[in-house]
Amino acid sequence: MRRSYAGVLVLSAILLLNIVLTQLVVHQYYYENYGVTLLYAGLNILLFPIALIVYRKERNKGDR
User: Fold this and answer.
1) CA–CA separation, 48 vs 43, rounded Å?
2) 6: how many CB neighbours lie within 10 A of its CB?
3) pTM across the whole model
4) Would you list the DSSP string of 6-62?
5) 21, 44 Cβ separation under 8 angstroms
6) Residue 43: predicted pLDDT
7) Residue 3 pLDDT greater than 70, yes or no
């Protein structure tokens, strides 16, 4: 049941992007750039299903 590190690296990159986008949302909201704030928040929300798909693929790799 050896797993590759690719899934872990992808999930780590997604987590890093979530942190960066959250910081950008807070920064843009502070400077009242609401359009850009909504854009970054939307991108942040879109990353969740991607991470869920990657996680499920990695979890199911051990079942083979």
Assistant:
1) 9
2) 10
3) 0.86
4) HHHHHHHHHHHHHHHHHHHHHHHHHTT-HHHHHHHHHHHHHHHHHHHHHHHHHHHHT
5) yes
6) 97
7) no
CA distance 44 to 14: 9
Instruction: Give the sign of the dihedral formed by CA 19, CA 21, CA 23, CA 29.
Output: negative
Residue found under tokens 């009242």: 32
pLDDT single digits (tens) 8-53: 999 999 999 999 999 999 999 999 999 999 999 999 999 999 999 9
Whether 54 and 15 have beta carbons less than 8 Å apart is answered as no
Instruction: Read off the tokens for 31.
Output: 């400077």
